[in-house]
Amino acid sequence: MRKIIATLQKNSFKLSLLCFFLVSFYSYGAYTIESSSYLGGSGTTDRVYGSAILNDGTIVLAACITDANPGNVTPILLNGATASSSGAIVRLSSDGRTVLSVTRVADQVTDLSIDSQDRLYVAAMGGGALILNKTASTLLWSNTFSKSVQRIDASPSGRFAVLISNTTFLNKTVTSGEVYNYDNTFDLVGNWSTGMQYSLDVCIDETSETVISIGFKNITAADQSGSNPVDVSIYKGWSYTGTQKYKAYDWNGTRDDPRWINLPENNMADSRGARCEMGEDGKLYMTFAVDGGNHIFRYSPFNISTRSSIVGGDKYHAFYNTKTEKKTFFGRYNANDGTYIKGQQFCARLSAGAGSTAHPEFGDIHADADGRVYVIGTSASGLPLSMEPITGGYTGGAFVLIMNPDFTTRELCTRTAISGEGNTIAARNGKVVIGGYIATTQILYTTAAIDNIANGNDGFFSVFSNGNVNTGSSVNITSPGNESIIYPSITSGKLTIENASNSIVRIYNMNGKLVESFSVIGSPEIITINGVPGIYNLIICKENGVIETHTILKQ
Asked: Measuring CA to CA, which residue among 195, 304, 180, 208 is closest to residue 249?
């Protein structure tokens, strides 16, 4: 077990007791995993699609569980469901360790939202849109539509919007999207077509009385090599009755069109609008999947010739040396007029430096009252993990990324599932719950599990707790001293350095005398620390001219 003895800042240090070596980049202990579990069952399409944390801390999951019986409780049957109906609402204790109830409601459920009174709003595909009481024991309202209910979102007062479409969920061809908007007495206020080729999500802002939907289209665009296909993100806002307030991004492909996607430069990286949600701070948050660095989010949503700033940071928040791997862009916007406020990008990276996949398609985004952002998605190897419950060389999976309100600090980056998909995230009062899907052959970290064995392609959930989300495993991504990772290996007297390829490492004692000097070729590199116990300064001289200073304690 790695033991933390200090929180580092460049050229300074703070010491604690009972330590072996100092960890200069990441620390552990701020977040703990209270529970992590499969939901069980032998189905091939099981998945946790939605999650929420109620006022009293109760955790609620919307999941497909086929023949599973979480907690061995007798299921409640609503909305004409039977004991074999796969779509269910699973209620858990606040730590996720105890099943409180299971309510089967339809053949499939694909989304979950709550209002300030903890009423549960459920997207149930062919089973319609449902509203349940907070214990999921009573059906308060339901309605079926001419198309499948894909997504649903509720405002604090109980207004809600429903997104329906022709096709099945988890298929990018979610075509012919329509929005149905209701007031908090369940009366229909308006319905309209999204006008998007692919519609992926919907949310509602009652402050500005705006309904927002996000998606994308595929066009053929003129570029330097002729004409090529490209996916273009779109989001739109409407009044409650369906009058369009704005249309954002949605660039066109014709060279002489003032909305030509390549008007300022090549912007041919595919992008797909993925998720939208109203944050607890009253701002609109959205995620987009991006296939390259030459993406449209470098420009205003309303003017392809006007640059937009992106926060950026270390190499996980910069899209250099990347190809067509799917990556993440997320942003904060004004719901009323759609204007861009702040944005950040994120990718994984392999040890050799190349970009790697980390995307939010079919994932989720949440923001708390401070503007802290929670993103879940799917990643290949190369995540900048600050908490690693699963050991091994593969560092991908259903990733969780928590960024501070100004998007400059990774407060947490982790995964509990290797491979699989992350589909939902919720947060409240220092508690975070995630859910998704994992195959039988893949690995899930389990603890305090209600089911620790995957019997088929299974849904999973994990519950994290943190009494103070501003402490612990945070990484200031704008500090150059945070590029390298240093931690003790299992073997006593050795130190592992990551992200310092082709560097010179020198170790000085506190009197300024050079004690050790190493050439670091690869990453990770394990070096042996000789000499007597004491405090030492470790200097990393990188090939790009950056010099980092870290402090280590040897016992």
From this structure: 304
Cα 421 → chain centroid: 11
Q: Which residue has the tokens 């003895």?
A: 5
User: Which domain range does residue 505 map to?
Assistant: 487-554
Whether residues 491 and 430 fall in one domain: no
Q: What is the CA radius of gyration of the chain?
A: 24
Nearest to 263 by CA among 307, 198, 328, 322: 307
Degrees to nearest 5, angle at CA 304 with 300 and 308: 30
Angle at CA of residue 107, ends 106 and 108, nearest 5°: 90
In the structure encoding, which two tokens stand for residue 275, read together? 């998720």
Cα torsion 128, 173, 63, 335 to 10°: value is: -80
Shared-domain flag, residues 375 and 514? no
List, as one string, the DSSP characters of 407-438: S-EEEEEEESBSSSEEEEEEEETTEEEEEEEE
3-state secondary structure of 57: coil
Q: What is the domain count for the chain?
A: 2
Distance separating alpha carbons of residues 345 and 308, to the nearest angstrom: 13
512 and 460, same domain (yes or no): no
Q: How far apart are CA 300 and CA 270, in angstroms?
A: 17
Tens-digit pLDDT profile for the chain (555 aa)?
222 222 223 333 222 222 223 322 233 337 899 999 999 888 888 999 999 999 999 999 999 999 999 999 999 999 999 999 999 999 999 999 999 999 999 999 999 999 999 999 999 999 999 999 999 999 999 999 999 999 999 999 999 999 999 875 554 556 779 999 999 999 999 999 999 999 999 999 999 999 999 999 999 999 988 999 999 999 999 999 999 999 999 999 999 999 999 999 999 999 999 999 999 999 999 999 999 999 999 999 999 999 999 999 999 999 989 888 999 999 999 999 999 999 999 999 998 889 999 999 999 999 999 999 999 999 999 999 999 898 788 999 999 999 999 999 999 999 999 988 999 999 999 999 999 999 877 889 999 999 988 877 899 999 999 854 333 456 777 654 444 555 554 445 677 776 676 777 777 665 566 777 777 776 667 777 666 566 666 777 665 545 566 666 665
Which residues share a beta bridge with 534? 554
Task: Report CA-CA distances (Å) from 219 to 58, 412, 447, 496.
Answer: 45, 37, 46, 48
C-alpha torsion sign, points 509, 515, 519, 521: negative
Question: Pairing relation of β-strands 226-239 and 340-346?
Answer: unpaired
137 Cβ contact partners less than 8 Å away, ≥ 6 residues apart: 76, 101, 103
Distance CA 65, CA 463 (A): 19
Q: Using CA atoms, how far apart are residues 373 and 214, in angstroms rounded to an integer?
A: 18
Q: Are residues 368 and 320 in the same domain?
A: yes
What is the domain-level CATH number for residue 357? 2.120.10.30
Q: Are residues 244 and 191 in the same domain?
A: yes
Residues 6+ apart with CB under 8 A from 183: 159, 189
127, 144 Cβ separation under 8 angstroms: yes
